[in-house]
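Can't paste images in this forum, so I'm doing it all in text. The chain is below; anyone willing to post the predicted structure tokens underneath?
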Amino acid sequence: MTAPTPDPHTVQGDCAPAYEPLRDRLARNLSSGADLGASVAVIRDGELVADLWGGEARPGEAWQEDTIVRVWSVTKTMASLTALVLADRGHLDLDAPVADYWPSFADERVLVRHLLSHTSGMSGWTERLSTEALLDLPLANEMLARQEPWFEPGSGSGYHMVSYGHLVDGLVRGATGKPLSEVFAELVAGPLGADFHLGVPESELGRCADLEAPPPGGIDVAALPEGNLMIPTLVNPKLDPAEFNTAPMRTVSLAGINGHGNARSIARIQSAASHGGEVDGVRLLSPATIERIFEVQADGVDQVLLTPMRWGIGYGLPQPVAAPAVPEGRVCWWTGYGGAIVVNDLERRVTVAYAMNRMTQHMTSSERTDAYVRTAFECVEAAGMEVAR
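Text version of the structure:
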């Protein structure tokens, strides 16, 4: 039975008193139409201090506690974490050539850490790629494996916008004999009981919120510098917004762009990074592996995003131009096209996550997402002051 649509002013879920401003922000955004449906969560020192949701999953249908939504490139943090777990357990060497695990990978200059930090030069496909081929992981993976990098591996970054999930999938298949989606479920989501999927099971498709494409605008193609890598990355293949909500785009694991979850599940999984590698007694990472996240692999203008970026291994690191709301310090984060985000703050032992279905023009930053992040960390500070008193 379809649940009735709630009043858009009504936010469901619970939060500690200091986090009421976060509830208020979500309520205002639902009321104004900035958000159609959304969820926001904060984990602090192992406690889920805010778990909020509201609005519509699709017109006329309420966003429920267990609604999940495509979070675009926030999915990359799940692929990264899985690879880091494998490295922690000795199945991957971050400094080894990818070809050590993936024999058909042609360029031995490309190291595992290059794939995870967008510095491999494999920002997209050189051969023409259809949407159907994109969904055929073995085929699309091998197309990447045999091509020449677009720039010298390790010389800088060029965001692996769509190719990231295919590259990590090929790497993980070579190291374990299993697809990334299966390893993620076995080593990460399953042990943590987290409702996040690299490929949504057909039985769960009914829980998926429908994405609403962002309004026209955004990138001024005419203003881009000649020879830029953004255009060849974006147009091969050129994804049709009309396909975002189809079953094939949900059930196949495209681990760079189509993971499905909600703020609660994102925060639970990613809190492994902000909480010393352990979540409720389940250890995913050792302190030594967490330290490797913060080894700067590139710091400068990204050749695809065309904005200054600082990349560690598997995550973005604070860069005020790209993400003004992400706090400085021992923080690792990433965001998704349209606005979803996760921020891990190791000093505060805090993870903040936001997932929504009304997309806006957002690549690394936007007013709506930045406001959620700022409000969440203001609440963290307020909660700390209450404890101090």
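The first helix runs from residue 20 to 32. The chain is about 30% helix and 15% strand.
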